[in-house]
Amino acid sequence: MRAPHTRPAPPRWLTHPLHGARGLRGPVPWAAVARGALGVGPVLAVGVAAGHTSAGVTAGLGAMFAHINDRPATRATRLVRIGLPALAGATGLLIGAWLGTLGLGTWIALALAAVGLVSGAISAIGPVCSSAGVQLMVACVVGAGMPAPEPPPARAGLLLAGATWVLAMAWLLPLFKGSVRLFKGSVRLQGPPSRRGRRGGAQAGPPDEREAVAAVYDALAELMAAVGTERGQAARRRLTAAYDAAYEALYAHRIPLYRPDAGQRRLRDLLAVAGALSETAVTLLWEGEPLPTRVTRTPALLARAVRTGRPPGPLPAPAPHTAGGLAAHRAVLLAARVFDGEPAPAVGAVGPRPRQRLRRVLGPAGREYAARVALCVGVATVLARSLPGDHWYWLPATAAFLVKPDMGPLVSRAVSRAFGTAVGVAVFGASAALLGALPGADEVWPVAVAAVCSALIPVSVRHFALQTAVLTPLLLSLVYLGGDRGAELARLVDTLLACAVVLAAGALPGLGGPRAQVSVRLSLAVRATRDHLDRVLAADASYAVRLRLRREAYRALADARRAVEVASAEHPPFGRDLAAWAPVVGALEEIVDAATACGVRLDHGAPPPDAALADRLRAGLSDLADAVATRRPPADLPLPTVAPVALPKPPLGGAPCATLADVTAGLHRARHLAGSR
Question: Residues of the chain whose pLDDT is less than 50?
């Protein structure tokens, strides 16, 4: 009997645009949809009604950019997530509008390429700066190529005004919602005081930040339930993601001189307790002994206390037979004290410092990506200026959006952009045919289309093709009111040409391609792993420093894993080669897990490691970081041997230490995998 014929699976770089279709399902963010409905449409309508259509178009463009950056976040983080890109966009529009007045002709491509260098360099700092860099570039191109009667400073102010309107809604509407909730809660609490607990209802901080902290405790409960099972590493990664989200809500992206109120300081204390519990949970994960169900429910009790403001009640802890169990006992005792009102131990900031941000801008990642943005925008501008028509800005603006690597693999971005633009052009054409024939609707129907599309932006961010399909009719409505009418097919051709330019640039080496993205993220992760291990092995390292470095290491490893996952779906020859870096990330995660357990064991009486062994481990990680950054094999160094340990998980103290044996084994595996690349 002939064996059934199995078709080979299509390559991932071709099917990647379809993978994100599963993410289209999910709850509708109605608050963001409401802000979208009240954003671009009303701003545009005011400009049209006042007889200043051009001003309304520019302000509507600023509101559109703000809606794109209006992602789920707290009020304080939205202030920077929306405000910083808006300032960058206003600066770009000012520069572009000024360049448009100089009559440079095709030579304007050089000026826009210079702006592209700045845009690409600052995009290497982080996600918010990446959004700011793209908005700087796109607004500069639009300012240079889209004619408008207003002077350059007025155009920049109008763009900023549209973004400010969206930012004001994002800042004020949650306050109104919270006031209504507080009023209802105060009405429910009227009654005999004896029916209320001493601390009942005393919720800390704004609800969105409170929920972010509670999610960390939920992830902790999941991790403790997964101790001793195969689900442990996946649960630990989810804890890292939850902690990063909570940290960003409470610490990151704050305006200068920001002073948290009492509620936010309280939430920071609760997050510090979660950090202490996470260290013990990672140690218990390394020890590998399953925990009783009553113990795994402790973080869930704390999560409920964070959400309700009520006392958590009795908090069970593991038996103190191992270093992890004893550390968990102390962490649970700390949680009981802090949840009762005591302040938590101070923990330093996590994330890149100003010097590290400057190093990212001037380093290989910033330089190579800046060169790619400059090349794509410059070539697209020259190509657009050689085509017939005065509205040449669409092609280079599309190239500036498309070159952004945050949207996924290159081929997937190009296919999604082309498909989404085609759908958007068809939707706009159908709207023009159906609504444009109505009497007196020449300037009304584009406003209606823009309002509907603006309301759909929060849902469209789930897939790049859907986002493009929503933004295209919105942008075509704006340019229609700006005077560029009947050019829908030309805009589709411009998009296809921009896709071709970016795809061609992706085949060139040394321009911030997927190899550079992976090498930079992975080298940062190796250095963060080394710094954490170095402080663990140092006798003078404080607990706060060690906790901060552990968070930085896990955060850098999460970034590296995401970079490898995206790069593995790149087109040949990149995808298959870069997917092989995933085991290196796994080996580094094992090193950080073992180093965390080593720190806990040292706190509870384990003998300090040999100085020569610590020096060789540090040297091995430093060489691995340099090898990954420069894309060379690791050097042949005298590393410690992987010796078997008599007691794999010794209880409290004892030598030899199994944690350092695991660190050594992980280092050997990471260096071997990197050398075989």
Answer: 1, 179-201, 644-648, 650, 652-656
HSE-CB of 27 using CA atoms within 13 angstroms:
5
Query: pLDDT, tens digit, for every residue of 20-36?
Result: 655 566 677 888 888 88
Query: Are the C-beta atoms of residues 570 and 517 closer than 8 Å to each other?
Result: no
Query: Which amino acid appears at position 654 of this protein?
Result: G
Residue pointed to by tokens 């060379």: 632
Which tokens is 260 given? 């948290």
Say whether 638 sits in a helix, a strand or coil.
Answer: coil
Task: Give the count of beta carbons closer than 10 Å to the beta carbon of residue 49.
Answer: 12
CA-nearest of 99, 332, 78, 109 to 209 is: 78
* CA–CA separation, 660 and 674 (whole Å): 21
Tokens standing for 422? 């085609």
377 in Cβ contact with 113 (< 8 Å):
yes
* Euclidean distance between CA atoms 434 and 426, whole angstroms: 12
DSSP for 521-589, written as a single string:
HHHHHHHHHHHHHHHHH-TT--HHHHHHHHHHHHHHHHHHHHHHHHHTTSPTTHHHHHHTTHHHHHHHH
Q: Cα angle vertex 153, ends 78, 166, to 5°?
A: 25
Q: Would you mind telling me the total number of residues written for the chain in this entry?
A: 677
Whole-angstrom distance, CA of residue 183 vs CA of residue 224: 38
Structure tokens that stand for 593 in this block:
């897990």
Whether the upstream peptide bond of residue 573 has omega within 30° of 0, thus cis, is yes
Task: Flag whether the pTM goes above 0.85.
Answer: no
**675, two tokens:** 């050398």
Cα separation of 376 and 384, whole Å?
12
* CB half-sphere exposure, 182, CA atoms < 13 A: 12
| Residue 651, preceding peptide bond in cis (omega within 30° of 0) | no
CA atoms within 13 A on the CB side of 386: 8
Q: For residue range 304-348, what is the model confidence (pLDDT) as tens digits?
A: 999 988 889 888 888 778 888 888 888 899 899 999 888 887 765
Q: How far is CA 656 from the centre of its chain?
A: 41
d(CA 75, CA 605): 45
User: Which amino acid is present at 30?
Assistant: W
Q: Which residues of 208-218 are buried (b: 16+ CB within 10 A; e: fewer)?
A: bbbbbbbbbbb
- Judging by beta carbons within 10 Å of its beta carbon (0-12, 13-18, 19+), is residue 16 exposed, middle or buried? buried
Beta-carbon contacts of residue 100 (< 8 Å; ≥ 6 apart): 108, 143, 144, 145, 147
Beta carbons within 10 angstroms of residue 333's beta carbon: 12
Given a contact cutoff of 8 angstroms between Cβ atoms, the answer to whether 474 and 49 are in contact is no
C-alpha 15/C-alpha 150 separation (Å) is 46
**Torsion sign, CA atoms 609, 612, 615, 620:** negative
**Phi/psi at 39 (nearest 5 deg)?**
-95, -90
Name the phi and psi angles at 510, rounded to 5: 75, 25
Which conformational region is residue 610 in: left (phi greater than 0), alpha (psi within -120 to 50 degrees), or beta?
Answer: beta
CA 202, distance to chain mean position in Å, is 32
